Amino acid sequence: MSRIELQGINKYYGDVHVLKDLDLVVEDGDFMTLLGPSGCGKTTTLRVIAGLEAPRRGILSIDGVKAADGEALYNMAPAKRGVNLVFQSYALWPHMTVAENVAFGLAIRKTPKAEMAELVAGALKRMRIDEFAERYPSELSGGQQQRVAIARSIVSKPRILLLDEPLSNLDAKLRVEMRSELKRLHSELKTTVVYVTHDQVEALTMSTKIAVFFEGRLVQCGSPKQIYGNPADMRVADFIGNPSINFVPCVASVDGDTMVTDSELGRLALIGIGARNAGLYGASTGGAAREAAPPSASALSGESTLAIRPEHVAVHRTHVPGAIEARVYSAMPAGSETLIHCAVRGRTILAKAIGQEEFATDQKIWITLQTDKINVYGKSSGKLTLGATA
Amino acid sequence: MKANAASPDGKARTGRPPRHVPFMEKAKNVTISLLSNPYNVISIVSAILLIYLIVVPLGEIVTTTLKWQPKDIRISPDAIPGHFTLYHWIEMLTGKTAAALLYGPLLNSLAVALCVSVISLFVGGMMAWVVTRTDIPARKFLSFSILIPYMLPSWYKALAWITVFKNDRIGGYPGFLQAIFGINPPDWLSYGFLPIVLTLSVHYYAFAYLLISSALSSIGGDLEEMGEIAGASRFQILKRITFPLVLPAILSSFILTFSRAIGTFGVPAFLGLKTNYYTISTMLYSSVRSRRTVQAYILSIVLIAIAVFTVWLNQKMIGKRKSYATIGGKGTRRNFIALGKWKTPILVIILVFIGVAVLFPVGILLFQTFMLKDGIYSLNNLTLHYWIGASNPKIFEGEAGIFRNPAIWAALLNTMKLVLLASLIATFVGLIMGYVISRGRKKISGRIIEQLSFLPYLIPSIAFGAIYLSMFSQRRLFIPALYGTLALLVIISVVKYLPFSTRSGTSSMMQIGSELEEAAVIEGASFGTRFRRIIMPLAGKGFMSGFILIFISAMKELDLIVLLMTPSTSTLTAMTYSYAESGFHQFSDAVTTVIVVIIMIVYLVSAKLGKVDMSKGLGG
Predict the structure, then answer these.
(1) CB contact, 8 Å: A68 with chain B?
(2) In what order do the strands lie in the sheet with A217-222?
(3) Min Cα separation A185/chain B (Å)
(4) Is residue B142 a part of any domain in this protein?
(5) Angle CA B244–B250–B253, to nearest 5
(6) If pLDDT is split at 50, 70 and 90, which confidence band does B360 have?
(7) Which residues have C-beta within 8 Å of that of residue A214, sequence separation ≥ 6?
(8) Residue contact A52–B518, C-beta within 8 A
(9) List of chain A residues whose C-beta atoms are within 8 Å of the C-beta of residue B536
(10) Which of B21, B33, B534 has the CB atom closest to A75's CB atom?
(11) Is B525's CB within 8 Å of A108's CB?
């Protein structure tokens, strides 16, 4: 249970600037996921919070106490921060048994024997690995090793639990199982969790908040719903969501409270600029890159890009009013859903339909768009100019 | 102006200007972090020690050769002791004695090293190919016994050679050939170039064998099979596929053999000095013995320069090509080439070779220890006197048999102390260096330590001994005069073996992921706890293997310590040398036998216990 605050953190590896002016607040009890492609600085951020790396500039405080100050060359020892870390590789000590691994930190802190045994047994039980206490890590499966690593990190009841891509070495089925396990652990322990992943599904399903990183910068920070519904720029929009979002170049103009876009999808009227953008400006929920005031009408006009999620594209077998004519380029039924690549005037739009739908290649179809969910981005800035209706 | 305005792309270079923090606060925090993170302390201490033990001595010998020495006043009226002069270099390079002191020995050294490299490469390369690539029987036995000659001191073969081929030129007892067959071997067969080249080749072929066989076994069988599918004949496959792939290893082993052979001392001393056949290393030895220090230093610099040049050549030629030496298909499946009717002849040739290189020399030396009088090969001449006999004034100045000889027991004790201490300390230091290097891969400190710890590799053992002899014969700073103490022998051995112990320590450390240590940092374990509880237990196996390699190298070491010996610190190898020098052959052979037995026991035990990677021990 702890609040973490990073102010203007800058980190370099040699000449490489890996964290650039990072401002981020992790509130007490948050499950904060740091999300981004590899090399974006998310793991470095985690290591700065853990104290394994010292920032060159900027201040890190935990519960209002300064834990690192780049300018003052101050870096509090990791063990004094009340944090614990689960490594991507688990980093279990191969020469110690499961119980010894879990007890190591308690022994360092000179916990009395009886209490130590009780705590270790409790942690093992919680992770449901008590039967393996006397085994060595090499005698366990990947999933069991993962549980040992988590048991080791929670046995000392840290205020903050840091997890570095902990599920990336597990197979798909185990991963889904561990996700729910971790989510449950978070609600039981009420610990502040910082979780690093490049898997956006993991981020969306587990977090209370997501911070999206690109090239060493924090690009957006918000709830999974905000991040998915209103990605702050095109990189985030492209990164979040599977299958990925459709981008269609357009020219936008503003007519009162309505944005009108002309594109290969025809003329679309996106109504309610004020209401759609109301939540995007002014409020600050964690140092995301947001402008202070709503942009003027002229800033919203001009060359732009429409961003449409596949599930907001509906496919019809017969003509319906307002529909756009298209052809099936290819259809891919996948059990619970069907993905349809639709060719519209030389552009391919991806649509997602629920259930098993069968289409013939080159079959003529009609598509309609859920215009209140469409995002618009400025072409040159790549920034969000029109949000989706909440 | 525009210092903090904007970078070309129009964005602010750094979002915010750095905050100002008082100097005292920074200083306090830096001190705390330096002290709490022993990595820095260890790297600084190691760097200082390495500089003091390696760089300073090197600098010192260079400056000494450029200064007038006190005793030079007698040879030159201009001499002002301590002042700069090129006199010594000019005299050495162009003076009347240059041919005898420098160029002659230099030519001899180059000729010996070149021939040894060629022969070793051929013998070692062929054996490597036969053992790794063909269906030769008894593969395991062969790969073990092929390395035995290398495990034993190079000069024991020289002793055996003398025993067999000794002629009457220098008087004394007759050699085996003369005594039995009445043949008086010519000088060129008894001493000098030919025997030196042959005995060294029988030692150094193991270099080529180790390097080439490990390159060969990393080539996947599929690469050769592909050639077969393409219709190439067996010889074409060898020539067009296999050979180019191991070419880097071949070049490398040639150059490494050359750089080792050029500085070697024991063999040319035993086989060359009697006929005044000098190499640089034996000339260096006699310069030191006759107190011509500057001359010895210049010879050391020449040896070091040659070693540096060959290593540089190695890096230059192999650097880029090395990469594909380890590439190759999957090295798992191996298709052995059928030798067919050649199988038996080849096996016999190898066995005979091993017999000549190992069994025969050991046998003849052992036999000689039982001969009361040299050169009389009859049954009633046999005795156990040299092993267990009491002192008898009529035999070799009353020297008692080695098991009753207090000097030998003292030397054995010294040897065991020296070898155990040196290999323990060297291995431990190697682990620490390995820690600094592996954890500091991206830091300057790691690279500096890595470079420094490699330096002793470039200094031939005999030159190293000469440097330490003068450096530690007097009190220096906080170190008392160490000449004549075991401590000096331990220090020089640890420093000389540093390149090997560091290499093996680094590879052990690389296998311990830094995350394993970080996980302990998170739990609040101090550096000491981490080293004791995490690193040492995990590095244990590497520690053992490094320890045994250095143990064997130190056990047979002569070149490094021969100049530093005093009666009270004499070791078995030094005893051998001094017995041989004074013509007490039975004694030197008996002591050699003891050394060989100890080494063989260690080699056998370590081979039984587990995997000791001999290729990491390409030391002496």
Answers:
(1) no
(2) A83-86, A160-164, A192-197, A31-35, A209-214, A217-222
(3) 20
(4) no
(5) 160
(6) confident
(7) A36, A37, A40, A235, A236
(8) yes
(9) none
(10) B33
(11) yes
Of B16, B30, B33, the CB nearest to A21: B16
Name the burial class of residue B22, with classes exposed (0-12), middle (13-18) and buried (19+) by CB atoms within 10 angstroms of its CB: exposed
Confidence of residue A289 (pLDDT cuts 50, 70, 90): very low
- Whether chain B has a CB inside 8 Å of the CB on A289: the answer is no
Is B357 inside any structural domain?
Answer: no
- Of A166-175, A360-369, B333-342, B485-494, which range is least confident? B333-342
Does residue B556 sit within a domain?
yes
Residues of B with CB under 8 A from a CB of A: 14-16, 18-21, 25-26, 29-30, 33, 36, 442, 513, 515-516, 518-525, 529, 533-534, 537-538
CATH number for the domain spanning B410: value is: 1.10.3720.10
pLDDT tens per residue across span B15-64: 567 778 888 888 888 887 777 777 888 888 888 888 888 888 888 888 88
In a domain, B521, yes or no: yes
Give the burial class of B567: count Cβ atoms within 10 A of its Cβ; 0-12 exposed, 13-18 middle, 19 or more buried. Answer: exposed
pLDDT band at B81 (very low <50, low <70, confident <90, very high): confident
What is the total count of domains within chain B?
1
pLDDT (tens digit, 9 = 90+) per residue, A210-247? 999 999 999 999 999 999 999 999 999 999 988 899 99
A89 and B515: CB-CB below 8 Å?
yes
Query: What are the strands of the beta sheet with A74-75, ordered from one edge?
Result: A16-26, A4-13, A57-62, A65-69, A74-75
Give me the pLDDT at residue A294, please.
61
Residue B576 has pLDDT above 80, yes or no: yes
B16 versus B472: the higher-pLDDT residue is B472
Give the range of the structural domain holding residue B489, as residue numbers without chain letter. Answer: 384-620
Could you tell me the fold of the domain covering A234-386? OB fold (Dihydrolipoamide Acetyltransferase, E2P) (2.40.50)
Least confident range from A119-128, B441-450, B521-530: namely B441-450
Whether the per-residue pLDDT at A354 is higher than 50: the answer is yes
Q: For residue B318, name the pLDDT band (cuts at 50, 70, 90).
A: low
Q: How far is B12 from chain A (nearest CA, A)?
A: 11
Its CATH architecture, for the domain A4-229, is 3-Layer(aba) Sandwich (3.40)
- CA pair distance A370, A246, nearest whole angstrom: 13
Contacts of A105 in chain B (CB under 8 A): 522-524
CB pairs under 8 A between A and B: 88
The C-alpha of A78 sits at a distance from chain B's nearest C-alpha, in angstroms, of: 5
Q: Answer yes or no: do B519 and A85 touch at CB < 8 A.
A: yes
Task: Tell me the shortest Cα–Cα distance from B29 to chain A, in angstroms.
Answer: 5
Q: How many residues does chain A have?
A: 390
- Asked if B442 lies within 8 A of A20 by C-beta distance, the reply is no
Contact B534 A84 (CB under 8 A): no
Q: So where are chain A's domains?
A: 4-229, 234-386
Nearest residue of chain A to residue B524 (CA atoms): A79
Tokens of A347: 């552009």
How far is the alpha carbon of A94 from chain B, nearest alpha carbon, in Å?
A: 8
- pLDDT at position B429 is 92
Calpha distance B572→B558 (Å, rounded): 9
Buried b (16+ CB within 10 A) or exposed e, B330-362: eeeeeeebebeeeeeeebeebeebbeebbeebb
Both structure tokens of B484: 């004549």
Q: pTM of whole model > 0.90? A: no
Give the nearest chain B residue to A76 (CA atoms): B33
pLDDT at B415: 92
* Segment holding B207, helix H or strand E: helix B193-217
Q: Which residues contact A304 (CB under 8 A, 6 or more apart)?
A: A249, A250, A251, A252, A261, A376, A377, A378, A379, A385
